[in-house]
Amino acid sequence: MSDHNPKEPNINTLGIDLTELILSSLPIPSLLRASSVCNLWRSLISSPTFTSPTLSSPWFFLFGLHNTSSRNNQSFAFDPLSNSWFRLPSLHDDSSSSSFLGSGGFLFTTTPKFSYTPLLKSSWHLTSPLKYSRVNPLLGVFHDGSSGVRVFKFIVVGGVRFIGGLVDIEDRLAVEIYDPNHDSWEFCPALPADFRSGNSSQSLSSALLKGKFYVFGIYSGFVSSFDLQNHVWSEVQTLRPPGVIFSFMISCNDMLVLAGMCNAPRGPSFNIWRINEKTMELSEVSLMPQSLLYSLVDDEEDDKFASLKCVGMGNLIYVFNEEYHQKYPACLCEISADNGKCSWRRVPQLPSPVNKFHKVISFCSTVSLTHIFH
Asked: Which residue numbers delimit the F-box domain (predicted)?
């Protein structure tokens, strides 16, 4: 006989719609626990139609690749709403670690063969071969509705090709766009010649915004955009704020943002600027607090800031140190969609133990619960 008083509220008596509404307000760690309560809750949470405001904030993904054994690879994901790291299944692949990349909710290998898998799913799809196999290219995922049906495509820009074990520095490599529906590649004009001295993801950053794929030189400040519909490059311009040492271009809150390290008269600083996409003029929006900046580096090193990297998406920008001896510390900046104001905070340390990595892949992506449950 039940001890429940029928006059008192009981969640089991709620309708399905109200139950789903309540569940949708929970952060992901709580959703994962709630999915184990009963079959009904799990079916609601794992349904492809389940939506939640907590899923809109982009997560920070960090994939560490070991230089001798893939068994020592490690993968982590940071949920900004719960302020928690999750340890993910490790990457295991026989390909060269230099060919691993992440973008737009997918992981990729680019050589010796091009393949991809949705984030959090180990279901690799092998594509027809690239015309130019390459390592460290820029990769973007965009939606194309030119055929009347909205489909996602991949764009591969730049990178380095090896011929006889040597780097081919002369070939700028054509842009290649992949259509998964037809398993076909389309060849487009290569990066402008201005980028010849540094055309890999080690010296370039990229941003997708309003039908354009922007390519930006981290150290050179060169910028050009590729029109995803007309397949033409814009004129190369230079974006170099006074005192900037290196910077990254990011698409945030439907606007272009530049984030980078400066050596200003007042001392080293990490700045964020908004870019007017029409005039390409810059306006400063925020500086990282000095205490936060120095918490990311070893104060004893001369070139302490050189290993800082930056990625972003939506309303969040993540800055982290890719050096192992620092255990990959990170912080984030949240840009308000209402007033554009920025708030900074430290990201918790990665869950121990953390291995020493030969290469670190980092990017932002929103998360779907179908990635977790299916």
From this structure: 14-54
Quick one: 285 and 307 in the same domain? yes
Mean pLDDT (whole number) for 274-290: 94
| 8 Å CB contact between 369 and 50 | yes
Partners of 152 in beta bridges: 143
User: What Å distances lie between residue 232 and 125, 189, 225, 275, 367, CA to CA?
Assistant: 29, 7, 8, 21, 32
By residue count, the chain amounts to 374
SS3 for 125? strand
CA distances from 175 to 2, 138, 185, 328, 332 (A): 67, 10, 10, 32, 32
Closest CA relative to residue 274, chosen from 304, 302, 247, 246: 247
Distance CA 194, CA 208 (A): 20
pLDDT in tens, 288-302: 999 999 999 987 666
Residue 20 sits in which domain range?
10-56
pLDDT of residue 94: 46
169 belongs to a structural domain? no
Strands 222-227 and 74-79: unpaired
311: β partners? 318
**148 DSSP assignment:** S
DSSP characters for 80-120?
TTTTEEEEEPPP--SS-GGGEEEETTEEEE-SSS-EEEETT
**93 pLDDT more than 80:** no
* Judgement on whether residues 37 and 88 belong to the same structural domain of the protein: no
Beta strands in 164-209 (DSSP E): 166-168, 175-179, 184-188, 204-209
Q: Looking at per-residue confidence, does 266 or 326 come out higher?
A: 266
What torsion do the CA atoms of 286, 288, 289, 295 make, to the nearest 10 degrees?
170
- Condensed to tens digits (0 to 9), the pLDDT of residues 45-91 reads 777 677 776 667 889 999 888 877 778 888 899 999 889 998 887 66
Residue that is written with structure tokens 């929103």 in the block: 366
Measured distance CA(311)–CA(368) in Å, rounded: 20
CB contact at 8 A, 364 and 58: yes
